[in-house]
Design a protein that fits this description.
Shape of chain A: elongated
Number of domains of chain A: 2
CATH topology of the largest domain in chain A: Creatine Amidinohydrolase
Helix content of chain A: 25-40%
Strand content of chain A: 15-25%
Strand order of the largest sheet of chain A: 4-3-2-1-5-6
Distance between the termini of chain A: 67 Å
Structural class of chain A: alpha+beta
Oligomer: homodimer
CATH class of the largest domain in chain A: Alpha Beta
Order of helices and strands of chain A: HHEHEEEHEHEHHHHEEEHHEEEEEEEE
Largest interface: A-B, 69 and 69 residues
Chain lengths: 411, 411
């Protein structure tokens, strides 16, 4: 069976630059990874229903499902197919049509069907399970997470595009600041620059309760406010329905401004935090920021294939404690128990740099490292960069000055 | 048992305006509605885990669960409670702690426990079910959707705030346009104005596969492009990972520009579409827009408590067909099979104005009505307004000129 790209071709009419679609060879790397992990987990097939995983597996978003056996090519079961045709594309009205269509193609129905148990709703899981009536079901979310942890060459290229635009957009930040600005107004101007540089806007997270808009800007003591989300830092937010980030406070002299906006200039997000300062920060804050920079240097020097993610967390915490910043590390009232995380189509992918992680860095992992400190009276300091694990070490993808950047030089 | 508001008090420190928290009496209306529907469905209790429903039931977002029996007051089981205390607030480490804590309070465990089956993941459903081990489980999503369909006085007030700011932000739109602008650049400037007027940013939708950023701006033939989402119209989008809305095309003379941004200035979103025109539109487009305005007039004249939602769809379609616009109604290639929808914390709530709806309009319903037409060569026309069903009729919440608004008057 050969790959038929007509569905892609049918969709390209509105896009000028073909390279925004992954080459089939690159998709094939992903399909083989999913098949390998599926086989290891004892599955016969998986049926993928979420847009993020459909995008990962096809380079497109469509209404429908991707069906995979442990061998051969995936089938795209598409609702609303608008006449798209091809060897891999099968039009359906509803998921219950799929088993009959597989039989018609002499494809045996799976005994052990994997569905995205951590992502699709209970109701949808039951519906898909009933349509196939397999002997057993397994968790396709775990399989896809594992596959998505190791990025393909095209995906790595997408990160490079995101990271470059991310840095370009951040370079405009000092010019956007005016004395007397509220945190939210500064953030709004940064959001506009992100969009002007090509941000697609939505900030994809894994997990139903992980709401955030385009990212966060924290100044002063708001940086220490806990929030109900599993991001590194919190902030009180502008409204009780989204208690995270800027609160509408005027940015004060002597306070830091930490900018952590998602680099979603492609489907693959870079994650980058830089610290801005309106007036001079306290010596203690400068020391803590320097310590964060030293941690980044250590990661670049020591990190490589095989490094345990847990160890990175442990030495970061140890360095913080040794320098007397243990209580400021990753928050105050509520301290995040990780110092970094994989990034990709979603901001919180594998691996997680935390104590109980069993993951080792592998070539092709792309992750954010974000040792941050919250100083009462000042705010948050510390950088975040996105790194690629290569065969020879670690490459920094988010290249931009790491010193604290002065706002209104003259002040 | 009396209501203890300490958890609210604990959260207000970052908020200046107390009225952004609902009064307890208003929450109580919601609790009673949920209890009534739960009892009718044969449930003993429900355990709510999603942030949208936690916000609906408490006026806050926290990490944890809301537990409800069919009588009495809900309990807030809070992870990361930061010392918040109160009769209704119980600190937990994990959901498995809840049954023991209920027993300790002499609250019998439910035989029929309702969980948010259409919202939480299959894995989370199984985990919560195992923690309680009830004889039966039911679907709390359906219960909450029904309760959320009828808005309380405070919720209606929040819509009024959103709708007023929505109109104010839209009034700036003509001043943002410049000849030669791309659709996405025009949208970016509108997004900024929405934020400056207080938009909280995130656009909440029901359903895992309903991605959108802050709303959509459609010009020319892009308005007829199908998309994989269940919004009224589509558009090709800027990137294959989010195929909806603006595509980066320059806005052409003689084309319409349809602006449909979410009015999320509070947790309760108004939905409003207005049409802008760069140069004069074709007579046919002007006729179709007039027809949309007539449909809005008819809704205002005839709509009232007891009106069948299906009937509104049917007469809208009939009016479109009679005027020769049947093929342009709600899209071309892909026509939406609804002409409106309930709005609230999420943009797609009950009721849905579609042929197979069995819902009747009830006092307290807030819904968007959006009869739109796509004209090849021109783009989309037709308005969208948010309406409140009152005891005496229908009130328009989104008050702003409904004529097509000229961009660059001099052209």
């Amino acid at each position: 069976m050969t790959i038929d790209n007509k569905i892609q071709a049918g969709n390209t009419q509105t896009f000028k630059d073909d390279c925004i679609f992954p080459p089939v060879g690159d998709l094939e790397i992903r399909w083989r990874a999913v098949q390998k992990y599926l086989l290891e987990a004892g599955g016969d097939a998986c049926l993928i229903a979420t847009h993020v995983n459909i995008y990962y597996l096809t380079g497109m978003v469509f209404t429908g499902f991707v069906y995979f056996s442990v061998e051969g090519y995936p089938l795209y079961f598409v609702q609303r197919s608008f006449g798209c045709e091809g060897a891999q594309i099968v039009a359906i009205r509803k998921p219950e049509d799929i088993p009959g269509l597989l039989k018609a193609r002499n494809i045996p129905l799976p005994k052990n069907l994997f569905l995205e148990a951590d992502q699709i709703s209970h109701s949808e899981f039951l519906r898909l399970e009933a349509a196939f009536n397999p002997e057993k079901t397994g968790n396709a979310t775990a399989i896809l997470k594992k596959a998505r942890m190791i990025k393909t060459p095209w995906e790595i290229g997408q990160f490079r595009i995101s990271a470059a635009k991310h840095a370009e957009a951040y370079r405009t930040i000092p010019s956007l600041f005016k004395e007397g600005m509220r945190d939210i107004d500064f953030q709004t101007e940064i959001e506009r620059q992100m969009r002007k540089h090509g941000s697609i806007g939505i900030f994809r997270t894994f997990g139903g309760n992980m709401d955030i808009f385009m990212g966060s800007l924290l100044t002063g003591d708001n940086a220490g406010m806990p929030s109900p989300y599993d991001f590194a830092l919190g902030g009180g937010g502008m409204h009780p329905c989204l208690p995270i980030g800027a609160t509408g406070e005027v940015i004060k002299k002597g306070n830091s401004v930490m900018v952590d906006m998602a680099g979603n200039f492609t489907a693959y997000m870079s994650d980058m935090t830089r610290v801005f300062s309106f007036g001079k920060l306290s010596e203690k804050a400068l020391d803590a920021h320097k310590l964060s920079m030293e941690m980044h240097d250590r990661l670049m020097a020591e990190g490589k294939e095989g490094t345990a993610c847990a160890d990175i967390y442990k030495w970061s915490l140890a360095m913080a404690e040794k320098a007397g910043f243990g209580e400021n590390f990753m928050g105050i009232k509520q301290q995040a128990k990780f110092v970094g995380h994989g990034v990709g189509i979603e901001i919180n992918e594998l691996p997680v740099l935390m104590e109980r992680s069993k993951d080792l860095l592998q070539s092709g992992c792309v992750f954010a490292f974000e040792p941050k400190f919250v100083l009462p009276g000042t705010g948050a300091v510390g950088n975040e960069n996105t790194y690629l694990v290569t065969e020879t070490g670690i490459e920094k993808m988010t290249v931009l000055t790491e010193e604290i950047i002065l706002l209104l030089d003259a002040v």
